[in-house]
Amino acid sequence: VNKIVECVPNFSCAKDTQAVEAIVQVVRESPGVKLLDYAPDNDHNRTVVTFIGDPEHVAETAFRLAKKAAEVIDMSQHKGGHPRMGAMDVCPFIPVRNVTMAECVQLSRTVGQRIGEELWIPVYLYENAASAPHRRNLADVRKGEYEGYFEKIKDPQWTPDFGPKAMNARSGCSVVGARFFLIAYNVNLATDRMDIGQAIAKKIRFLNGGLRFVKAMAVKLEERNQVQISMNLVNYDKTAIYQAFEMIVMEARRYGVTVVGSEIVGLVPLAALIGSLDYYLQLEHFSMDQVLEHKLSE
Amino acid sequence: VNKIVECVPNFSCAKDTQAVEAIVQVVRESPGVKLLDYAPDNDHNRTVVTFIGDPEHVAETAFRLAKKAAEVIDMSQHKGGHPRMGAMDVCPFIPVRNVTMAECVQLSRTVGQRIGEELWIPVYLYENAASAPHRRNLADVRKGEYEGYFEKIKDPQWTPDFGPKAMNARSGCSVVGARFFLIAYNVNLATDRMDIGQAIAKKIRFLNGGLRFVKAMAVKLEERNQVQISMNLVNYDKTAIYQAFEMIVMEARRYGVTVVGSEIVGLVPLAALIGSLDYYLQLEHFSMDQVLEHKLSE
Asked: Is B62 strand, coil or helix?
């Protein structure tokens, strides 16, 4: 049984295309991993890289990426719209196949320690790898950003998990951790009224009493003249796609609004699709092994 | 883009385990193909073998299988409950990925010709490869079976497509062709009344005015005390799983009967699952390339 881990590091560069290429090239040249995607965002001056492979090769590649980022990025010169605190700003490990969350937590600790000790960059563990509850949420860890961390790092509440106890002026700090696969899922409504969209988003999301693993907000689609409920499903195993969809249908009904369509943005694991089809077709004992493509990828 | 064809030959042996092993071994030893399954049925004295690979290697393996079957099976001694007319009784080629039906038809013609000319076995083309409408349906071609074919082969309507114009007493004839992927799909009803099941099956199936690519019959599940609508979906691209399911829900309603569950038996292509999930979630522009496992199998 081949183990597969996904890794989605974010780097604080985009406009410097040579730096981006140098970083992506690390993935291309590393054995045992496959580059799935990379997306430089010039407004944010930030690049998201997605690659997969077996745990050992993914860990080695993640470390090489942190090293390359430290070489080609100077945080003291960085400007961009997205919150950030380091050259390799954040690096999550995500279980994809035959891998537990515990293994990914261990992986993030191993890689985090190497970055701290070998590259002399302060490292914080987050999400499922967090060493304390107040460090779980990425937004909380990142508050103050690169500029603010020269002070924040001295606060005993924010002593790094690995590496030096003082800021690395060139590379900043890195946030490393383990989380579940995140599905970006949007549902489009037959209305242009943002107040209705916002009311529905509130009923859906965890924050306001909705589904445990759903983050949601309303967005106006100007060219379609429709309101969209834009969601992150952060644990599709526990809160499935169909639950989010059907709950929106149910809430929209109160306003006489119907659902026009929905869209999955980016990658989605087969198990998340089957989990929802299972519900609609009332499938009895269906197994992933019955999917032809799944057998082919083994 | 790697092309994938599935091949599901049926052999007239099962009780002779040495013969079965010799046949399966051919697939195991052939390069470029992967054995997915083999299922000897002693009551029918018949073994179904499933393998996949690129078109060229699948074609070569299919020919080697016909040759091995001719070596290890003597049809003049064969007894079994299932209709049959040859050692390698039937051999369909099925498009799975990046392959057209036309390519599979051509493949079946190439293999059929080799079997006819090199092994001196009469070959009939069927389904999408059929050379005449009355040869399309396998049951029509097979009527008379091995024993009857010594006469039937002399009928100008039933001149073989390839090979000798007279019966091969040892190996019989082979039926080779191309068809779509077949999904075995069952829906279980909250009733034990076979008359209701039969009435629903009639409304669903093509034969009696139902869905174009659905074969259906009612079956009693004794241990569950339920009636099942047992179906073959013979072109999931044109008649999707959800259509069969929802039409049964709709017909059952007339009798106050609900659907307890459904099951997919054996393998199913990812595209068939997505085709149905698409409907329920009203997905907009979803692509197979977004499925993680699909990317892995490329």
From this structure: helix
User: Is B245's pLDDT higher than 90?
Assistant: yes
d(CA B128, CA B130): 6
Residue type, B167: M
Query: Could you give the CA distance from residue B125 to residue B138 in angstroms, rounded to a whole number?
Result: 9
Dist. CA A167–CA A144, nearest whole Å: 13
Q: Does the pLDDT at position B211 exceed 80?
A: yes
Closest residue to A284, CB basis, from B263, B276, B291 = B263
**Catalytic residue at B82?**
yes
Q: What is this model's ipTM?
A: 0.80
Task: Return the closest-CA partner of residue B163 out of B174, B154, B178.
Answer: B174
Mean pLDDT of A248-263: 97
Question: Please, are residues A146 and A78 in contact by the beta-carbon 8 Å criterion?
Answer: yes
Q: Which two tokens stand for residue B180?
A: 């779509």
Taking contacts as CB-CB distances below 8 angstroms, the residues of chain B near A96 are 292
Cβ count within 10 A of residue A81: 11
Say which of A96, A282, A283 has its CB closest to residue B292. A96
Instruction: Please tell me whether residue B237 adopts helix, strand or coil conformation.
Output: coil
Residue A1: per-residue pLDDT: 61
Cβ neighbours of residue A31 closer than 8 Å, sequence gap 6 or more: A57
Q: Which residue has the tokens 């000798």?
A: B164
- The pTM assigned to this predicted structure is 0.81
Check if the beta carbon of residue A10 is closer than 8 Å to that of residue A51: no
From A236, A142, A144, A245, select the one nearest A188 (Cα to Cα). Answer: A245
